[in-house]
Design a protein that fits this description.
This protein is an all-alpha fold. It has nine helices and no strands.
Length: 192
């Protein structure tokens, strides 16, 4: 099992309407009612489950955080932010397309999703270093992704989180994060 993520079977209905979940309150996201704990490093499957479910539940908060950081960096370095975002998007879309159309790459993505994501980010870094956008890439793209992964790893799930994730996992609702996770080979499993 690749550390810390592994492949899960597809359980979402592809024709369900895509909905953005509501913005969770700051209290629920990081303040007093939020509970945090280090994940059990000896149980990567449980850690994976926590990360996937938190990514799905707090996706709107993560999107707002990512947008705020990108807007700040974009205000400081607009051209480099635009070039950096374009490069990463094109590389990611190229990877998803090749994974869907090439059996070898599809198997690699399913069996080793974390190294595949690292390769896409490393290729983005190399390409951006050629055009001088390394700092923008590091601070504008990688930093918010790092914050999101840290929060999703440390945030304990609550009952509302579990119920919302069940609704999505049985295909009653599709979200942008669910589609992204599906493209990365991290589909939500019903009953997890």
């Amino acid at each position: 099992v690749p550390f810390p993520f592994h492949h899960r079977p597809v359980a979402m209905a592809p024709n369900a309407e895509v909905q953005l979940p509501p913005l969770r309150t700051l209290d629920d996201f990081v303040c007093s009612s939020a509970r945090f704990s280090l994940p059990d490093l000896k149980d990567p499957l449980r850690w994976n489950n926590r990360v996937i479910n938190n990514l799905l539940y707090y996706q709107t908060n993560y999107l707002v955080m990512l947008a705020a950081i990108l807007l700040l960096v974009g205000y400081i370095e607009p051209l480099k932010t635009l070039v950096g975002g374009t490069v990463v998007t094109l590389l990611f879309l190229g990877f998803v397309w090749s994974a869907e159309n090439k059996a070898v790459i599809r198997r690699l993505r399913r069996n080793h999703p974390t190294p595949c994501l690292v390769v896409v980010l490393a290729a983005s870094y190399c390409l951006l270093s050629l055009v001088g956008g390394v700092a923008v890439f590091l601070f504008g793209i990688t930093f918010p992704v790092l914050l999101i992964i840290i929060h999703a790893s440390l945030r304990l799930r609550n009952l509302k989180n579990k119920i919302e994730n069940k609704i999505e996992s049985i295909g009653l609702k599709r979200t942008p994060m669910g589609i992204l996770l599906e493209a990365l080979g991290q589909e939500q499993e019903a009953g997890s």
